[in-house]
Amino acid sequence: MAESQIQSYLRALKRQLRIYGVFDSEYLDEVESHLLEAVAEGIRQGLSEEKAERRAMERFGSIKVVAPGFAMERKNIMQNLLLAVAVIAGLFSAYVDSRPTWDDTGILAFGILIVSGLITLLGYRRPWVIALAVGIWIPLHGIFIAHNYGSSLALVFAFVGAYGGWLVRLVIQKTLHPA
Amino acid sequence: MFGEALKGHLDLLLLAILADGPAHGYAIIEALRNRSGGMFDLPEGTIYPALHRLENQGLLQSVWSDEAPRRKRIYQLTLKGQQALASRQDEWKQFSKAINATVGL
User: Fold this and answer.
1) Which residues of B touch A (CB under 8 A)?
2) Please, which residues have CB within 8 angstroms of residue A163's CB and are 6 or more apart in sequence?
3) Residue B73: CB partners within 8 Å, gap ≥ 6?
């Protein structure tokens, strides 16, 4: 049985959304529901099924126009999620650092560097925000509670990590999409 | 028509349409087209990301309805959405009044 134009459109949209990192099938379910509704309306108005399908897709918009819109919305959710992870990781590192039994600063510094780097590598747009979200808690606790000014070094590791991840991502993007 | 100009006001338009009651995406787009006399004719696929964004902001909520002949995602205003609509309507009144006064209408 030949694939309908709607099914071809949905398949192409699914492929494009995957390129943008969107895997949520609810989007496609909603688009399919919309297109079928539009086709039914076209047929009610006297169009042939083929013409109704074509009109439905034309009105919905080309995949090049539609897919980035869905991806942008997804990106914003992802940004908030990454920021939340950064804050949690930062608070956790401050908690670990504040324990009297903990004295391995090197591991903590390395952890802050890696976490900050990973988060910006995964796509957070503003590295300075991530550096602060991960690295501010140890200095806050160190300076105001323990009067340890050396703890502000945690911020340095967070900034180095965040900008390092951001730079690597930039290089990857430039390599994959030279234009 | 008016595609670019509409983008900044799309949230207000969608909230206003849903003030009349819950509706699915296709019905919202039809209402947008009909109420504007066909002037607001955006690519329909660009409306859904806006609806999802409003839902993420807590201004709308949605549920899937399994009513025949096909599943539909039904959107409706939340209390926060109603308040946002009232506030944006006030802003729009002031804005359009200022524009009208400036251009001499």
Assistant:
1) 24-26, 29, 43-46, 48-49, 52-53, 56, 69-73
2) A120, A127, A131
3) A26, A29, A30, A33, B24, B25, B62, B63, B64, B65
The CA distances from residue A3 to A7, A11, A30, A39, B70, in Å, are 6, 10, 19, 15, 19
DSSP SS3 for A4: coil
Q: How far apart are CA A81 and CA A43, in angstroms?
A: 43
pLDDT digits (tens, 9 = 90+) for A100-156: 887 788 898 999 999 999 999 887 778 999 999 999 999 998 888 878 888 888 999
Q: Collect all residues of chain B within an 8 Å Cβ-Cβ radius of residue A36.
A: 70
What ipTM was assigned to the predicted interfaces of this complex? 0.83
Q: Indicate the CATH number of B2-103 among 3.40.309.10, 3.40.50.300, 3.30.750.24, 1.10.10.10.
A: 1.10.10.10
What is the value of pTM for the model shown? 0.67
Chain A to chain B Cβ contacts (< 8 Å): 60
Condensed to tens digits (0 to 9), the pLDDT of residues B48-70 reads 989 998 998 999 999 998 877 78
